[in-house]
Amino acid sequence: SQTIHQWPATLVQPVGSPLSLECTVEGTSNPNLYWYRQAAGRGLQLLFYSVGIGQISSEVPQNLSASRPQDRQFILSSKKLLLSDSGFYLCAWLSVRGTGELFFGEGSRLTVL
Amino acid sequence: AQKITQTQPGMFVQEKEAVTLDCTYDTSDQSYGLFWYKQPSSGEMIFLIYQGSYDEQNATEGRYSLNFQKARKSANLVISASQLGDSAMYFCAMRVRRGNTDKLIFGTGTRLQVFP
Q1: Residue of B25, B31, B45 for testing the chain A interface, max A β-carbons within 10 Å
Q2: Cβ of B45 and A88 within 8 Å?
Q3: Closest Cα of chain A to B103: distance in Å?
Q4: How many Å lie between the alpha carbon of B38 and the closest alpha carbon of chain A?
């Protein structure tokens, strides 16, 4: 069965420090992968998605970047964090079977101080 | 442009009663999919129900049903016989597929609180 994991689960970082959130998927090949951010009490905002290795589409101009070095690995990064980068980050993959719903990872809660 | 709108920031319902969470969408596509997700306080996103734009019948999954009104572009979630464990954030989403683009866009969510 397919599973998705992301880490770390919780992160507290100072302004100006770098960031790396990692997401891996198991049990499927060539998945579409997504990074969403949820600010406190807000909806989900799509940040990046990827349809294959090295292919990244950015939805919103921002301080973050994404990379897909391997088929089932998706990384969210920043060179210098801003206070506004605080939030709950969710990685997801798109099922191409059935209804085509998104399956989400456990989430990473980032607090920038 | 595609958009999902959830106009209810918060809703209250008494246990065992039914509740409707509103969702309207905007798209010019003929083929699309609509989803509802539940997000408990733990943060995990739980898929609840799906409605395809060509489905003639409203989707149902246990206590969840989707009231799909295509002409009005609405896809409201109905939860019957509410339980305390239904207290959570609920998100409506729409699948957008164009060329290489295949993604889900989400509404701002509705926080449901079920009281005894």
Answers
A1: B45
A2: no
A3: 8
A4: 12
B108 close to A (CB below 8 A): yes
- Residue A95, Cβ neighbours under 10 Å: how many? 16
Would you write out chain A's pLDDT as a tens digit for each of its 113 residues? 778 999 999 999 999 999 999 999 998 888 999 999 998 777 899 999 999 999 999 988 788 999 999 999 999 999 999 999 999 999 999 987 777 889 999 999 999 99
